[in-house]
Design brief:
about 240 residues, mainly alpha, Multidrug-efflux Transporter Regulator, Chain: A, Domain 2, 12 helices, 3 strands, about 5% strand, rod-shaped
Amino acid sequence: MDHSIGAVARLAGVSVKAVRHYSDLGLLTARRTAAGHRRYDDTAVVRLRLIRTLRALDLDLPTIHAVLREERSLAEVAATHADALAIQIRTLRRQHALLTVLTNHPELEDLHLMTEHAEHAEQDRRALIDEFLSTTLGDADPAVRQNLTPVLPEDADAAQLAAWAELTALTASEDFRASVRRLAVGYRALAGDDPLRADPAYRSRLIELRRTEAGPQWYRYQELVAVVNGWAVVHPESA
């Protein structure tokens, strides 16, 4: 069945201007009447509905043209677009989280700190923490290092971003690094050949060591690691 340009536009749910535009780009074919008017068949309605759907999904016209000409499959285009959209969503979530943090930390230095550390690549963030742990704890047990390693997720929320920014600032403090080194030395002296010992006397001396050598900053570091990793925040001495 032949349709006028107005009829095909109504059937497909688009404007007459859009039909003309798509026709001029070669996305639609039409025959001309003796009077020069465009006439479209039912296939044009189907193609127009597909174009409208793909445009609503933010696909560009050259890509849609390739699909209509069967140069690219719809499945391939959808997969590529979905991957790109996933990246955009992660970026928007990160930006939203940063803005949420900055509503409570509007100072300029906070803006710089939050943005700089949040935008680090994952390998750069891991290298930063690995350097801190290696230079303070030395050859600590792998399980200990794992429990002290924050891993900022790609879809970090505002609390995780704030914790990460505070944590990286803390690890840059030479005073804190020195206190962690003293804690590590004292821990090795206490533990001796049995780093997993858990008798009451040892635990009491370990608590005192943490209090005197590391203090509140050490507990804060552990709390921040828990927040970044999405773990339950438990006071170290109550576990």
